[in-house]
Description:
By secondary structure, this protein is of the alpha+beta class. 23% of the residues lie in helices and 34% in strands. It is globular.
Amino acid sequence: MSQPFRQGRHYCSELWNGLSITYRDERLEMRCPGKLRTLSNAIHTGGLAEADVIVNWKVPLNYSGTDPARDAAAQLKQWGYEPDRTIGLLTAAKLTHASVAEFEGDRFKLLCLTTAGTRNAARAGLPRETFSAYSAGTINTVLLVDGRMTDSAMTNAIITYAEAKAAALADLQLMDPETNRIATGTTTDAVVVGVSGNPACHAVHAYAGAATTIGNAIGRLVYETVHEACRTQHES
């Protein structure tokens, strides 16, 4: 676990050859050595898709765009990315405070990156004021797996991510100011799960719950990166 962009601009994976993250003006750019099968709620190219670039775009704290999907597509095009091969996320968090962690386990390699802005922290499961527009804030997490997973296991990984994120926020005592209860996330969190399908890994992971080898690793890395990114977000 580390925050490489507090001192530098480039991070190369220690485990996955060719996977890199670059801090550019107003964005973090993750480039993969091959096309990934992805599952996400990303504002651009969300759902099930294929991509080899993931961009986390920092918008101003007062961003109030009525069509963030259109804004993201236009910005990615302006930067020169191939729209059909790029996942686009929006955040108001400090990109310099992104937390990165890696792990090699049972026929998989895993990299997790989290950026965290918690101005709109919220607790799921309670009545609250709701809205349809995008609000600045957001915990964005990208989970990249060099290995093989079924689509069901990718969905399971998102459940494990959500549980680990909520656990980290509980341990940080991060409060939802509207309900005065511990937050489980923010109102605009996003997650990307990307899987290489590397045939050299042989086995296909069919589950990713907390008691599986891959699910346990996902939970630990999500917890660590969410905790670090949230804990340090107000530091210089």
